[in-house]
Amino acid sequence: NAGVTQTPKFRILKIGQSMTLQCTQDMNHNYMYWYRQDPGMGLKLIYYSVGAGITDKGEVPNGYNVSRSTTEDFPLRLELAAPSQTSVYFCASRPETIYGYTFGSGTRLTVV
Amino acid sequence: KQEVTQIPAALSVPEGENLVLNCSFTDSAIYNLQWFRQDPGKGLTSLLLIQSSQREQTSGRLNASLDKSSGRSTLYIAASQPGDSATYLCARTDSWGKLQFGAGTQVVVTP
Question: Contact B66/B50 with Cβ under 8 angstroms?
């Protein structure tokens, strides 16, 4: 029972590089979310998905892209990394009921 | 703009004392209010969810109340233990399940 798995756990990027943060869940949840957490701040929603093939922007989507080709996977793509994207990124999923969020352990990204 | 605020930002108490954590939100038309726990270097663990029609929820030593009219929720942790040391986050939920978080309260319980 893996829950929500995020890879990598840590990454250092140079300005202008690109990368994909992976998120996989094995609970057959339709709803998936990407949040970022800056130091001393709460989490902010980047993108979310209500099912395979359906995604929508959250509060802070600029500089990111997502796709949802399967129920299990919800990768987050960073294009042209900037220092402002230095953060901890969390993926989460939930079933149809509102309760029961499961969060991944996070990816700590530093852009230098 | 809808906001979620948590006060205090940090709290230190001796073991055995009761903890009171506050959360306020600007929009009383919330769908749900949730409390999470975050341990260093780890993800979030859901503690309690209060639906908008409810006034409180309890789980073991934890009790969370919700007052929509004043835009406030309070998390009470009875008889605190060192293992309760963590950051506690509250979040309001909209009908799509999107969470809007406060910045959290960092709690240290000293033996």
Answer: yes
Mutate to test the interface with B, among A43, A88, A91, A102 (most CBs of B within 10 A): A43
Determine the distance in angstroms separating the CA of A81 from the nearest CA of chain B, rounded to an integer. 23
Please, is B74 exposed, middle or buried when counting C-beta atoms within 10 Å of its C-beta (0-12, 13-18, 19+)?
A: middle
Q: Please list the ranges in chain A whose pLDDT falls under 70.
A: 1, 98
Q: Report pLDDT for B42.
A: 84
Nearest CA in chain A to B46: A101
Residue of A nearest to B31 (CA): A98
pLDDT value, residue A98: 67
pLDDT digits (tens, 9 = 90+) for A42-74: 899 999 999 999 999 999 999 999 999 999 999
In this structure, what token pair is assigned to residue B24? 């306020």
Helix H, strand E, coil C: the string for B32-84 is EEEEEEECCCCCEEEEEEEECCCCEEEECCEEEEEECCCCEEEEEECCCCHHH
- What's the confidence (pLDDT) of residue A97? 77
Tokens representing A78? 């960073």
